[in-house]
Write a structure and sequence with these properties.
- By secondary structure, this protein is mainly α.
- It has three helices and no strands.
- The mean pLDDT is 92.
């Protein structure tokens, strides 16, 4: 079975949104925790943008391209 690019990108969006950066308050220092939190927030935001694009209708895509 051949999968579409949209299906593959949906998987990527889900991975980014569900990513667990393994913050451990017992072993991570404060700086490490802040970096991991920031990294998780960026992944979530990219995943959200990707999902918004994939769910956008033709008018939305056309507007974004112009």
């Amino acid at each position: 079975m051949e999968y579409t690019t949209d299906q593959k990108l949906k998987i990527l969006a889900n991975w980014l949104q569900d990513s667990d950066d393994g913050i451990d308050s017992h072993t991570d220092g404060a700086l490490e925790q802040h970096i991991k939190i920031a990294k998780a927030e960026v992944k979530q935001e990219i995943g959200d943008y990707l999902e918004e694009i994939l769910n956008g209708n033709d008018e939305f895509i056309r507007y974004q391209l112009n």
